[in-house]
């Protein structure tokens, strides 16, 4: 007496039993009904291409005039701010011995010294010495006397990360 093995897969599926020893995937076999009018694999309709057609890409959104205008305005504002910052920086920290300076302000607390060409009509002072460090008014005078006897003015800058003293005389 021979017994059949238990069915594989879903026991509730209603499929006709395949005799043992036959290829269950072969087309046109008994037990796998073909769909009417559809050659190919059972249960799957045959299509013209192996993959579904790719949907078209959505149209790229063009930048509007308003968006471009806002970008240009933002760039101009940032450029103006950077240019203003650079122009307003105190130029005294870049001065070296024998550079000529121009005083941009009449204020004694913030003279707005800038380095200019010595041949320029704006040149007012010549740098005789530049000494690194923090100095009070009294120590600045004595340090300038040591570094350059014929100095006339002293300029100290501190608090901006680089403290220094400039000893100046009229050009």
Our measurement of the CA-to-CA distance between the termini, rounded to an integer number of angstroms, reads 127 Å
Summed up, the helix count is: 2
Poorly predicted regions: none
The total beta strand count reads 5
H/E order of the elements?
HEEEHEE
Which word captures the global form?
elongated
Strand portion? 15-25%
Structural Rg: 45 Å
Q: What characterizes the major β-sheet?
A: 5 strands, antiparallel
Mean pLDDT: 76
The level of helicity is: 10-25%
> Given the helix and strand composition, which structural class is it?
alpha+beta
Strand order of the largest sheet: 2-1-3-5-4
Write a structural description.
- The protein is α+β, with helices and mostly antiparallel strands and 171 residues long.
- Helix content is 20%, strand content 16%.
- It contains 2 helices and 5 strands.
- It has helices at 65-88, 137-147; strands at residues 100-103, 113-116, 125-132, 153-157, 164-170.
- It has a 5-stranded antiparallel β-sheet with strand order 2-1-3-5-4, with helices on one face.
- Strand 4 (153-157) and strand 5 form a beta hairpin.
- The radius of gyration is 45 Å and the shape is elongated.
